[in-house]
Amino acid sequence: MNMSENGPPIKGLYLGPADAPYDYNGGKLTHNLLLFGRVCRALGMNVTPNRMMEAGRALAHIQLGRKQDFYYTLRAHLVNHRKEFAYFDEAFDLFWRRPSEGFTTLNLQSLGEERRKKQTQFLPPLEASPSENGAEAESLDSSMIALMPTYSRQERLRHKDFAEMSAEELEMAKRVIARMPDSLGMRRTRRFANGQGRQINMRRLLKDMIRKRGDVTRLPTHRRKEKPRPVVLLCDISGSMERYTRVLLHFMHTLAGSLYQVESFVYSTDITRITRQIQQKNVDDALEDIGGTVLQWGGGTMTGECLRRFNWTWSRRVLGRGAVVILITDGWDRGDIPLLHREMARLQLSCRRLIWLNPLLDVPEYEPLTRGAQALLPYVHDFLPITNLANLEVIVKALQNLTSRPSAEAYRARYLA
Amino acid sequence: MYNSVDELQAALNQQDYIAERGLSVAIYLALKTGKPLFLEGDAGVGKTEIAKVLSAALGSDLIRLQCYEGLDVNTAVYEWNYAGQILHLRLMETEGLAREEMESEIFSERFLLKRPLLQAIEQSADGLAPVLLIDELDRSDEEFEAFLLELLSEFQISIPELGTISASVPPIVVVTSNRTREIHDALKRRCLYYWIDYPHFHKELQIVERKAPDVPRMLARQITAFIQDMRSLELFKRPGIAETLDWTAALIALDQNELSLETVQDTLGVILKYQDDVEMLDPTTIQNMIDRAKVEAQRA
Prior knowledge:
The structure holds 2 protein chains of 2 kinds. Chain A is of the alpha/beta class. Chain A has 3 domains: 3-118, no CATH class; 167-180 and 229-415, Rossmann fold; 189-227, no CATH class. Chain A has 17 helices and 8 strands. The termini of chain A are far apart. A 5-stranded parallel sheet of chain B has the order 2-5-8-1-9, sandwiched between helices. In chain B, strands 3-4 form a two-stranded antiparallel sheet. In chain B, strands 6-7 form a two-stranded antiparallel ribbon. Chain B has 3 domains: 5-74 and 115-195, Rossmann fold (3-Layer(aba) Sandwich); 78-112, no CATH class; 201-299, no CATH class.
């Protein structure tokens, strides 16, 4: 491996005090180690110089001849998330191989590309355009769609391009942020704060006793602290919601920035977590990043399947501590309806409050009568119909009006068959 | 202490813990470099067990801190024995001591209740480092995590009334998490990370045979093959090694020599803990799985 000759000069790595000699027979291990660190960093792993130094030091403890041990040593130091194992393995295999195996820098450069391709997922063929939500679309056997990643002319991965935020939009976003509720409900934590409460604060009592020589006139108390509940956003980005997607992502970005512990997901035919991407300060960067990560823009809606995936893989990790879930969808669904019932029931049981934010498609006489909507309505605590989802302020207003009392009961009486 | 990864692996093996090479390397490095070991993995794959086995192999004490929400310094590090202090205070009042004297008397080690973290630090002062297990860190809240960050880098605790206590030999720290919440990068960064996966067939068979020596050979193979098969299903909670061992014990208690549809159905509650998962396995599916497991057991 001698790509270093062409690359920029790299400073030597300090590997600790002189009493721990690092003489690898004059080889280029340190050098290569550093280059490898760069490759890992290019793949998005959080490899700091400090970690590289620690990895280098740790190598002194193992037999370098055993490639397996070498591998695990580097992995334990450079990787700290399970999902990075695959990238690491790929980089490791490509980097640490015999020169005779035809190594070129080209392979390394292509690594970054492969990472993107990994997330390839198939879209179902779009026989019916998303706007046709009539009986035809609903009668489609959706489980077949899910199982058959068949080729069709329209089947393609879509990268979404979001235009930059206009000055007007920025202005609106600022107004919205100013009016955003601080939280969507509080929960009592198990920590205590001094002050009015019921439990006697022994620690303080003792201090008081010493100070006042035993003559305590008032028992100091403490009470449980309160914290905002975590929030989970599940946003439908299927074809029927397409015109709102941009503004909804803005909304999610605003929420993620102003509320405590927000987890964000988008779904249509598959569900993707976008928490990390959406937390970027600049909304345009965030949207661009999301546009590149999420690959199922404007597909059909398979809420049941997506919720199942959410319940199976994510709920245990994000719904702890009495989370509030906001489901943003219009209720059009081409998926498995019995499954949707089951998964909604499970979702309702595993969160504190389930809020359904529903755009009324700008139609005043719209009623949630589709099969999908009928499947959602029984399980939500709150039903918030919004006349115009294209306006951020309307959405925030709906959240502001959220009372402690669930609001879905009246709608259930009216719309459920 | 061990001089090579192989030595360590042999020592773990002696304690009936079959560790993968990667895990052994991680533990070995944790011992050598003094960094905490951060273990993640599904429930029941042997994360907590590691700490127990390690302390047994090293012949040192195991100090365990079970995390939960609201865990604070008073329960994790130290607390004063208030009742004792107040009683003592009353007694001293009759003697009419000066305020300073009373304070130094009351805030002495006599009234100090040592919680796991303080114990771990104090014990390492004797020379032999104990194994400190911080179990299920994800259950604690961010405040505690932040506190731990400081402790794990300094290995010293300061008690305002007494002074600072620091460890001469840092304890061997094992942190586990079930991922009910993401642990902050800052903490992970200071640790060696290892993800413990479900074992493959041969490793699991070894574990079963080691932990349940009186199990018939064929049954052990069938059990292992059956569980391995079950993990490939889309279950809400896949069975861990702990479940495999529980099930083995159950089948031995029922005097079984091989898997049968009836016994599997009757004992399914030992392996699966969610009704949805139990419902997924209808009699035909179970029969098919048993047949496959028998073939697999013959072949292995």
